[in-house]
Write a structure and sequence with these properties.
mainly beta, elongated, 2 helices, six-stranded antiparallel beta barrel, five-stranded mixed β-sheet
Length: 480
């Protein structure tokens, strides 16, 4: 029997199109903000000062002018490390602060103190302690950048580091490659979370949990919200997991990588489970490359990545510890185009996919369940539990980030999430799926039962019969 499930999650969103005052947070799920106050050496506010920010992750430099209260705000900034600059003017020396971190959905505060022009030519501030503390939000959680999680000793997918956030713990759920997935946040179950990748909702609409996964090399930053998040996210009683993929830059860059694990490096099963098949080691190859750069500097960037992963899982089943195995193939890929239409409008198209194919012993039957859910208890392990399970899918995101006025921004996004869950018997396998206590068989076919409206003895119901001249009575007859 073949079971096929294909899900299309279509989302058309218009976000953050609103008028904001300078004191109210204004950012989207894919960008952050830098704000602060410009003062002189005596602490007096300085209006009319142009503040400029640049970053390797920002396709076009952005700027803002301090208002009558000395406050400035620069919106719609992709996550990354920024440089904040003020040119010498109005009798003041130039100002520069490097390594200002901007995070997803966060506001980084940078106070600017201008010195008199005669005091020094340029004021360089290198101490950035507290610069990325968002004082405008009471949301709990954490942000993790690619520079951080690339050095973590964890499994190499975004799902495996979700538990870094406070109150987020392992749920016990794993994917076909044995990696952690769908953590529990604040006591909620894994399927009660909400998952957003590149601004589109990739939560599995059939079973809950995450409907997509990505390797480290594809990801720029992960934002994890564990409490007090805004109503615009919704559909979650657990946490919000917001992921943004990498973009290109004005300089070409890339890398190639390869990781492998042999079965001899994995310990064998020491404690056999009382139910379900027990994992008994694995071997794995994880290799790929990524590259990004300019199609036209300061105008159009590209990023592309390919990361095929191959894994073989070994099991001991409940049938006298009989061995079983399966092969898992996941050719991860991602691509992104970033186009600066003008100074105030940036268009982004991104796509990524995690098509997975599991051939052999179906340990978890393709469901969002622990890896050893299937017991493997049967007369013939290969016939009873072998097959093909196809999961994962592709995603497409179109987004326009616009700065309409200094106090008004808009994010317009259109997303398409395609997901599959196909369970297919092994090719050429003829496994009986129904066993009758007895049947009347003629020419290798079960003869049909004819129902009547004649009521039989008390408690026996209506009388049914089988017209079967020359048929044979078969006990425990198995049919597909």
């Amino acid at each position: 029997m073949k079971r096929s499930l294909r899900i299309v999650n279509l989302a058309l969103l218009v976000l953050c199109l609103a008028l904001f005052t300078i004191s109210v947070p204004a950012q989207t799920s894919t960008t952050g903000t830098i704000e602060g106050t410009v003062v002189d050496a005596n602490g007096n506010v300085v209006p009319g000062v142009t503040v400029r920010v640049t970053s390797p992750n920002l396709i076009t430099p952005q700027s803002a002018t301090s208002n009558d209260s000395g406050q400035y705000r620069i919106l719609n900034l992709p996550p990354g490390m920024y440089k904040v600059q003020v040119e010498a003017s109005q009798g003041f020396a130039a100002f520069e602060r490097a390594d200002v971190e901007v995070n997803l959905s966060k506001t980084s505060s940078v106070a600017i103190t201008l010195q008199p022009a005669g005091a020094s030519a340029v004021v360089n501030v290198t101490d950035t302690a507290g610069a990325n503390v968002d004082v405008n939000s009471n949301t709990t959680g954490t942000n993790v950048s690619t520079e951080q999680f690339s050095n973590f000793p964890t499994q190499r997918t975004v799902q495996s580091i979700y538990t870094i956030a406070p109150t987020a713990v392992r749920s016990g759920l794993r994917d076909a490659s044995g990696r952690e997935r769908d953590p529990s946040v604040g006591g909620a179950s894994g399927p009660e979370n909400n998952y957003i990748l590149d601004g589109i909702n990739t939560t599995d609409p059939a079973y809950g949990g995450s409907g997509a996964n990505l390797p480290f090399e594809f990801v720029q930053e992960i934002e994890i919200k564990t409490g007090a998040f805004g109503a615009e996210y919704g559909r979650a009683t657990g946490g919000i997991f917001n992921v943004i993929t990498k973009s290109g830059g004005n300089e070409f860059s890339g890398d190639a990588f390869a990781y492998f694990t042999t079965k001899s490096l994995v310990r064998e099963t020491q404690n056999f489970s009382f139910r379900g098949a027990s994992p008994n080691g694995f071997s794995e190859l994880d290799a790929g490359f990524d590259i990004g750069g300019p199609i036209k500097k300061d105008k159009i960037w590209f990023f592309g990545a390919f990361n095929p992963q191959f894994r073989k899982n070994f099991y001991l089943t409940q049938t006298l510890l009989a061995s079983a195995e399966n092969k898992v193939k996941t050719p991860f890929y991602a691509g992104k185009i970033t186009w600066a239409l003008n100074q105030n409008n940036v268009f982004t198209f991104s796509t990524f996919a995690d098509f997975t194919k599991i051939e052999g012993f179906q340990a978890n039957n393709g469901q969002n369940l622990p890896l050893s859910n299937v017991s493997g208890f049967g007369a013939n392990i290969n016939e009873s539990f072998n097959g093909i399970n196809e999961t994962g899918g592709s995603n497409y995101a179109f987004r326009l980030n616009s700065t309409i006025t200094p106090n008004m921004i808009g994010e317009f996004s259109f997303g398409l999430h395609l997901q599959r869950n196909n369970v297919i018997p092994a090719e050429g396998l003829n496994v009986p799926s129904v066993t009758d206590n007895f049947a009347l068989v003629s020419s290798n076919a079960v003869l049909p039962v004819t129902s009547t409206n004649i009521f039989g003895a008390a408690g026996t119901g209506n009388i049914d019969f089988v017209y079967a001249p020359g048929a044979q009575l078969a006990r425990n007859y198995r049919r597909s």
